[in-house]
Amino acid sequence: MRSLPQDLPRHVAIIMDGNGRWAQKRGWPRLKGHEQGAHSVQECLNACLEVGVEYLTLYAFSSENWKRPVIEVKGLMFLLEQYLGSKIEEMKKNGIRFSAIGRLEGLPKSVQERLHKAMAATADNKQLTLTLALNYGSRHEIVDALKAIADQVVLGKLDPDSINEELISASLYTAGMPDPDLLIRTSGEYRISNFLLWQLSYAEMTIIPKLWPDFKKQDLLDALENYKNRKRRFGAVNA
Ligand code: IPE
Ligand code: IPE
Ligand code: MG
Fold first, then answer.
1. Mutational test site, ligand 2, from 58, 65, 197, 200, max ligand atoms within 8 Å of CB
2. Which domain holds residue 69?
3. Residue 155: inside a domain, yes or no?
4. What angle do CA 204, 210, 215 make, to 5 degrees?
5. Which residues, 6+ apart, have CB-to-CB distance to 27 below 8 Å?
6. Ligand 3 centre and the CA of 154: distance in Å?
7. pLDDT, tens digit, for every residue of 43-87?
8. CATH number at residue 127
C-alpha cells in the first residue's frame, strides 16, 4: 500500500538515540534499552514498508561509540549479531535488501560474517533498502573517499579537474543511494553526531523528544505526515 505517494521521502535516515536513558530511568542496565530499541527498528520497518519508503538508514553504532564501557560495546555487538541472525528470513519475505555502511572491517569477525551473510541473502530484494551504519563516522567516510580518489589520481587514472560532486558522492559508502530526504533524531538532542555530513546537505530534519525505545510506527507515520508540509527550496525562491 502506498498511501503517501506524492510527498513521500524516498530516503529516511534516523539517529536512534536515547536507549541508555530509557533504561536508566527504570533503574535498568543500559543494555536493556538497546535490547528494547530493536523493537523500534521493527516498528519503523513496518511503517516504511506500508507506505513505500525506498531507503531506511539507521545509525546503530558510531565510530565514537567505542569510547563506551567495554561491557556496553560487547553487549551491543551481541545484540546486533542476534538481530542479524534472526531477521534474514523475515527480510527475505518482505523484500528488504540489507546493507551496512561504515568501517565494517573494524567490527568483530563474527559480526562481519553475519553482516555479509545478510547482505548476500537479500541482495536481490527490491522493496526497501535497510542500511545500518556501524562503526560509522562521516569524517572517516570522507577520509576514505578522499584516499580512494587520490589513489586514482596518483595512478594517472583520474584528472583532478574531473573531480566533482558526483564523483565524491560515488566514492562515499552510500554510493548509489539517493541522499536522505528526511532525518529523524530521537531523544530531543539537536545534533548530527558525525552522521552523513555530506549526504544530509538538504535533508529536512525532525527532532523527536521521545527516547528511541518509545518510538513507534505511528511516530514515523507522523514524521512522514509532517514532511509533507515542508517547503523544500534547495536555495531557490518559492515557485
Ligand atoms: C543510542 O542510544 C544507541 C547507540 C548509540 C548505540 P544511546 O546509547 O546513545 O542512549 P543515550 O543517549 O545514552 O540515552
Ligand atoms: C549517535 O548517538 C550515534 C548513534 C545513534 C549510533 P550518540 O548518543 O553516540 O551521540 P552523542 O554522543 O549524544 O552526540
Ligand atoms: Mg546517545
1. 65
2. 11-138+180-227
3. no
4. 85
5. none
6. 40
7. 999 999 999 999 999 999 999 999 999 999 999 999 999 999 999
8. 3.40.1180.10
Q: Which residues does 43 contact at the CB level (< 8 Å), separation at least 6?
A: 215, 216, 217, 219, 220
Report if residue 127 sits inside a domain.
yes
CA 109 to chain centre: 21
Is residue 169 a part of any domain in this protein? no
With a 6 Å cutoff on the Cβ, whether 61 touches ligand 2 is: yes
- Structurally, how many domains does the chain consist of? 1
In a domain, 147, yes or no: no
Q: Which of 19, 18, 14 is nearest to 36 (CA)?
A: 19
What are 189-236's pLDDT values in tens digits? Answer: 999 999 999 999 999 999 999 999 999 999 999 999 999 999 999 999
Contacts of 206 (CB under 8 A, 6+ apart): 182, 183, 184, 185, 223, 226, 227
